[in-house]
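Section 3.1: Structural characterization of target chains.
Under the original work plan, the team committed to producing a structural model for every single-chain target entering the pipeline before any wet-lab resources were allocated. The record below documents one such target. The sequence was received from the expression subgroup and is listed exactly as submitted; it comprises 185 residues.
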Amino acid sequence: MSEITNERAIARVRAWIELFVVDLNLCPFARPVVSTDALRIVACESASPKVIATLLITELDLLSRSSESDIATSVLVFTRGLENFDDYLGFLDDAQTVLKEMGLDGEIQLASFHPDYRFQGEPVDAVSHFTNRAPYPLIHLLRETMVTNALDTYPNPERIPERNIHTLERLGLAGIERLLNSLHR
């Protein structure tokens, strides 16, 4: 297997965001941000837990000190070290603790995505898992004010997860796989 460069990982994640998240409208709030330079995507090719944790802390600090127009949101891409879903979930718990320790709880929230994402209690082959599946393990750092403002102006935001599942069910597993495989080209 060839080594994944940060640039290649970032390009693949950007393509996934545009094709899967925006074009399928899985996140109705993503389109305006994706089309600007205010979407920051940073990749970590190290498997070192210390390097991975440092990236998280650095990005949380940078996002908290930056204006929304400079960095609206940040996506952290982990190409190595968090491939195992359980390890990723453990890191996600640690990341939530770091967020609180930095005093950013209520200011920044974490959204999680992983190639093997599985919702507890869902069948293994459920399309619902793909709402949180991505080419690599990711943590999306979102500004709480942006999320709140978007939800306040969107009709029936509580229906977004259900709508997303219906969209993915219409595509079916074969259609989803075709879309995801097109990211490898």
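The chain has one domain: 6-184.
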